[in-house]
Amino acid sequence: MSSLFLIGDSDKKSSKSDGSNIQNSTFSKLLNFAPPFCISFHQFEVMAEPAYTVASDSETTGEEKSSSAFPEIAIGIDIGTSQCSVAIWNGSQVELLRNTRNQKLMRSYVTFKDEIPSGGVSYQLSHEHEMLSGAAIFNMKRLIGRVDTDPVVHASKSLPFLVQTLDIGVRPFIAALVNNIWRSTTPEEVLAIYLVELRVMAESRLKRPIRNVVLSIPVSFSRFQLTRIERACAMAGLHVLRLMPEPTAVALLYAQQQQQLIHDNMGSGSEKIALIFNMGAGYCDVAVTATAGGVSHIKALTGSTIGGEDFLQNMMRHLLPDYDNLFSSRGVNEIKSMGLLRVATQDAIHKLSFEESVQIDVDLGNGSRICRKVNREEFEEVNQKIFEKCESLVIQCLLDAKVQADDLTDVMVVGGCSYIPKLRNLVKSICKRELYKGMNPFEAAVSGTALEGAVASGISDPFGNLDLLTIQATPLGIGIRANGNSFVPIIPRNTTMPARKELVFTTVRDNQTEVLIVVYEGEALKAEENHLLGYFKITGLPPAPKGVPEINVCMDIDASNVLRVLAGVVLPGSQQPVVPVMEVRMPTVDDGHGWCAEALHRAYGSNLDLVTVQKK
Amino acid sequence: MANGGEKSSDFYAVLGLNKECTPTELRTAYKKLALRWHPDRCSASGNSKFVEEAKKRFQAIQQAYSVLSDANKRFLYDVGAYDSDDDENGMGDFLNEMAVMMSQTKSG
């Protein structure tokens, strides 16, 4: 009965993770994977079915519910690089769900000890060092959807599990040490195992099947990375209703709080401009939002892959200058030493948020021992570059939003790094404002996703507490390769969504009958320095001198952030397209996409190129 | 040709306002309409035709607001010199755009 059932219901409204065949391959892979790593959730489940096989029964229950008078409220999940949390609109307010150990914030890791994976939701580490023994995989959010040429993946090689790169643009090899054997896995699988734990936890708390979720994601995630998150959700039996950039989730919570104020004491209903700075272990994001009447209008978004993990790595190298040499060979002893240093350094950084200096004393077990005092200035100096980057993100975001510091009503600093004094000070000084005190910095993002979950599920509140809306903006530009090797954006960054924009291109050669449309996402001027999303060819152009055919490329992003690229060809003097219009849902690329663009170039040179049409 | 029926829709009408409205009225109208017509607020109805309609409505509202909320663009729009095609790319800096548009008005 409840055999393997594909989650992507292709006939339904927005089966976002396009192509059930993709999921299919993932599933078969998981199946191969399943026997040794069978999950031990049986105590929660009615039947002892492997947690990955999403039972068809639970799915139908979800379907029926959503069409009944009481629609299923989607839960909000904040998947952090270091910690995760789950929240839901409970009918009158947002409530964070607790696991069996009464935690609202749960560590993000999966340990493969004894060949049975268990994650930070259900599992209690016997000791902090257990997480660093090689058996646990963490920082999934930093690794997911990245290829092995990515500097972020290279930086992850210092983590106490195996991250191996071949530096050719394919996915990195990741493995956990189980009984002295490196067993391979992928960030998607690790995330899926973790999400299953979260789902089971939420189901046992709410006593109903959970299917729909709203997840928060970093601003800098490419659309390719978003597909990996969706895939992990699908593997865990979850349907993604929305993926929300983290600071926009915080912005929605802020919008709700402002509405509440008006409701309570007739506060002013005027528009409020807020800047949100969100820095966790893996990513740093900034947003500027204009809020009025429960509507949060995102004016600008900026983000970068910098976070607490970088502070930590810089400090470890500072404390142990020979770090890279010492740990280049990855024996069990090295991993153990690395783990000891990691714990000690993390602890020190944490204390430095509240104390001027801290004593470190750690025996690395390999003959070397670090015993010294570290003060706050030292920490700030070692991480100077990161702080500078944070500064530039805030300034850029204000600039993009066309907002002056004086226009800001409120400024909030949230996320795992929000107690670092230097960060608070730099945001305060750029924004010339004290920080907003009305929200818990660790719970703001997940609370926002829960609000979005309720709104997107069509829940209404008699007191108007859910008369909310986020008007999202595109975090990255989307365009095509044209004019030689340039990236020509069609939907620029920070365009309000849903959006539909088009641009006209033409051929570069006489009698050119084919053109290649290569779609990228990003900000770099050179096409190949952006994220490749996909490519397709338009064929059958009637022979004409170069520059004559009008090739119209249109990009459409709907409210659920699905991107479609449409391309059509017209000849002057005619309104009719000469060939059928192509409509392609992006991204279409899979792993190793770095290769594809190069391979295309080798195969076609500039024969199928395009140029923009100059406005008359 | 500069002034004629160059726009199929009147931005003020889209937002339900008259030409004399203040920036605050503009903002309020936009947010109210967004709350009503943004696809996110309509998607739960499950009616895909309605969602598609909502998307179109919201885009029209968004376009009207993005022009009228920018004092310079609103001025150009009011004198009939605003050309949405030039704006669509969102690339050119404003002065440039203004110069082009002004010369268009003169010649028209």
From TrEMBL, chain A:
Domain of life, per the record?
Eukaryota
SUPFAM superfamilies according to UniProt? Actin-like ATPase domain, Heat shock protein 70kD (HSP70), peptide-binding domain
Q: Where are the annotated segments for Disordered?
A: 1-21
* Pfam family, any one: HSP70
Keywords, in A-Z order: ATP-binding, Nucleotide-binding
What family does this chain come from, according to its entry? Belongs to the heat shock protein 70 family.
Q: What is the protein name for this chain?
A: Heat shock 70 kDa protein 8
